Amino acid sequence: MDTQTTQASAAPPVIRREDYKAPLWQVPQIALEFDLDPAATLVKARLTVTRAGSHDRPLRLDGDGLTPRAVSVDGKALSAGDWRMDDGVLIIALPGDDHVVETEVEIVPASNTQLMGLYASGGLLCTQCEPEGFRRITFFPDRPDVLSRYDVTMRADKAAYPVLLANGDPIEQGDLADGRHRARWVDPFPKPSYLFAMVAGNLACNADSFTTMSGREVKLGIWVAENDLPRTGHAMKALKDSMAWDERTYGREYDLDVFNIVAVADFNFGAMENKGLNIFNSRYVLADPETATDPDYDAIESVVAHEYFHNWSGDRVTCRDWFQLSLKEGFTVYRDQSFSADMGSPAVKRIEDVRVLRAAQFQEDAGPLAHPIRPESYMEISNFYTATVYNKGAEVIRMMALLLGPERFRKGTDLYFARHDGQAVTCEDFVKAMEDGGDIDLSQFRLWYSQAGTPRVTVRPSYDPESGALTLAMRQTIPATPGQDVKQPMAIPVKFALFDPATGEKHDGEEVLLLTEAQMETRREGFAQAPVLSINRGFAAPVIIEAEQSAQDLAFLAAHDDDPFSRYEAMQQLMIHALLGSIAGGPLDSAAVIDSIRGTIADAALDRSFVAEAVRLPSEAYLGDQMQVVDPDAIHAARDALQREIGVALQKEWRAIHAECARNGFSLSADARAARKLRGVALNYIVASDAEDGPALAFDQFDRADNMTERQAALAILASGASGERAQALAAFYDRYAGNALVVDKWFQTQALSLHPDVVEMVEALGQHPDFTLSNPNRARALYAAFAANQWGFNSKDGKGYRMVADAIIALDKLNPQTAARLVPPLGRWRRFDDERGAMMKAELERIAATPNLSKDVLEQATKSLA
Ligand code: TRP
Ligand code: ZN
């Protein structure tokens, strides 16, 4: 077969933001009836449609894989000539302006491996509609600017599906003949189809309640398999904390009488904010000390908050079209980040968020898939649920909050919610509300929505001893990105402070300066000696700072900066300088790094959780990002050597910390969690020092731990070594948790991430393990997404890593295109590596792109990655 022609003829259309047109028909009301059965579910839909404006265009109802069994208008069955199908779309010419259109289809949840639409997971039937899954359930104008009131009736076998849930409020339920039963749910809030949800199954409920600020009682339910019920407490606490926080912080009250969360084992993403019925990947619901790590607990808290916050930023005010995705996602990520900061340590939360941004978003912004937070075009919108739209989008909101200050920012959000409640709006509407409510001009700031690429800000301080003045010369450049060769200067908040090197004190507080030109200079006076510059404090702007800072200045900031992010950053920079110097062929100059680490662990005033962050070396991948051409082997060797030197030089300190941080009895207190984190870092350095008893010490921690945080940390350390304890620990871990899917995922993931010379062969073997399956996205990601993030292993010189991931993409695409497409970007980094590696990566992308019958999800990612 000639694949070239096949693909050319099937080339999916490109959707452009500029082509947006308002809907020609609205659907104020929809009644749905489901006769649920995994093998054949009957879906009857009754749409009240109204013509929008005056035109003579027919009604177009999106469908994906649907065949109409019956179509009627105003109660009269249509004959075949009265409607037609065009590429899945059902087209009906309607004479008047108001009609009732009824359709009937049959769908097969059991064979829905894409996990979009109505599908089976374990014994459950559940839905995922965002972004375009509703059209796999019934014919409908499946776009976010069509808002409808939903009236949903579910019928199912009562023994197999005793619980029937949908959006809104439960209205009636009752038994039917043949062991079936029914439930009817009505959602009073008009919503777009992507927020529709429904779940049927045998579920147990953690039931609780929350009294809102106006005194209404809301029934809360977290629905899981009966034996998971003891693992739902943390999610419930997070939900109640989120509800109270959104009232306190944004004045947002919950609006229905019930709020339900359901956990499902097979899910393409983290979770989904369906109105009144959030559906979660079970990994973001279930936790107990034996099976979940402290980072798992944190992730549950933030994802529960994220989905809850969407009730206002997403559901009550939704997106006009999918190009506006960051309207809800960037804002909601900003909201969940602020919530988590308030619930724990703001300093550590900021460090973690910046680490994620740099690891995922900066890489995306620097590669072939770079796009603005408001993209201009797409082939498949599912490919745009990205770190750029989510995390850079959150940074853009954060900058507006900084420029406005807390009070005016709140005025802006109040105005946004008041002005647009019940509407489907744009990013422009959000910025306008910030301008009007916050009384600020954001004209130039809007470039953050349209220009892709991470700005580089060069800051050159020069001190004149004569006048005692410091001049800061600043320059911004924004690199070219696909489709955007030339960029305009952006409005970049530069947050800085100056320190007196003699006293360690800060001069005159900190300042926020708005860099609006390509080049700008600013002058400050009155310094007896050259001050030390602390720049981009708190990581106020999502940019790369290029400041020529001496090792001495960095060491000073690592010891004295009162902005915890900048203090952390100074240590990272010291480590990076040492490592890049040795990678470039110089000696490994570890002295300054070791001194700073020694000073940091000795500083009793510092939060131990911060200390754990600050003394850890940057990841191999982040080091790669600092190089012109990534050399995975050199990076690994240098980082390994520095880790060893730090381990040896501070052996006594690490041993002391490891002993002191041991606790009797488990607690989730901040102190206990910090101790566990720092203990893991200490153990890592002890083992890295090649101390003879290192592996035994790690195995002992692994074996005696009363919690997953310490057990998993020890396992990861052993997995990256060659000791006899490695195999022993992996086998013991598997035996202990066999059957617990979320923990078995950790077992796969820990091995895929391990820095072991044979990791490629190990991952290859794990792909054949009886517990491995591509049909569960968590399991597929635990092995292949983790491995693709393992810079040393994935980029092994023989190209085996590339081939393995490409094989996985091709195989997974047949089952689940969305999840397959998310594995493509690591291969798209081919320009970042040497010619041999680059050629092998490219060859794999070409092989993927040439695969017959590829989904548009993978096709878009593979072809763009090659361009
Ligand atoms: N709106 C969801 C969130 O961010 C994202 C999401 C859930 C999603 N499921 C999805 C995106 C499936 C694409 C496909 O909270
Ligand atoms: Zn979201």
From TrEMBL:
Domain Peptidase M1 membrane alanine aminopeptidase stretches: 235-445
Catalytic activity: Release of an N-terminal amino acid, Xaa-|-Yaa- from a peptide, amide or arylamide. Xaa is preferably Ala, but may be most amino acids including Pro (slow action). When a terminal hydrophobic residue is followed by a prolyl residue, the two may be released as an intact Xaa-Pro dipeptide
Annotated EC: 3.4.11.2
Domain Peptidase M1 alanyl aminopeptidase Ig-like fold positions: 453-547
Cofactor: Zn(2+)
Molecular-function GO terms, alphabetical: alanyl aminopeptidase activity; metallopeptidase activity; zinc ion binding
Gene3D superfamilies according to UniProt: 2.60.40.1840, 3.30.2010.30, Neutral Protease Domain 2, Peptidase M1, alanyl aminopeptidase, C-terminal domain, tricorn interacting facor f3 domain
Residue stretches making up the Aminopeptidase N-like N-terminal domain: 86-195
EC class: hydrolase
Keywords on record: Aminopeptidase, Hydrolase, Metal-binding, Metalloprotease, Protease, Zinc
Domain Peptidase M1 alanyl aminopeptidase C-terminal: 552-867
Alphabetical list of InterPro entries matching this protein: Aminopeptidase_N-like_N, Aminopeptidase_N-like_N_sf, PepN_Ig-like_sf, Peptidase_M1, Peptidase_M1_dom, Peptidase_M1_pepN, Peptidase_M1_pepN_C, Peptidase_M1_pepN_C_sf
GO BP of this protein: proteolysis
Protein family per UniProt: Belongs to the peptidase M1 family.
NCBIfam families the record matches: pepN_proteo (TIGR02414)
Protein name: Aminopeptidase N
Organism of origin: Sphingobium nicotianae
Organism phylogeny: Bacteria, Pseudomonadati, Pseudomonadota, Alphaproteobacteria, Sphingomonadales
Gene: pepN
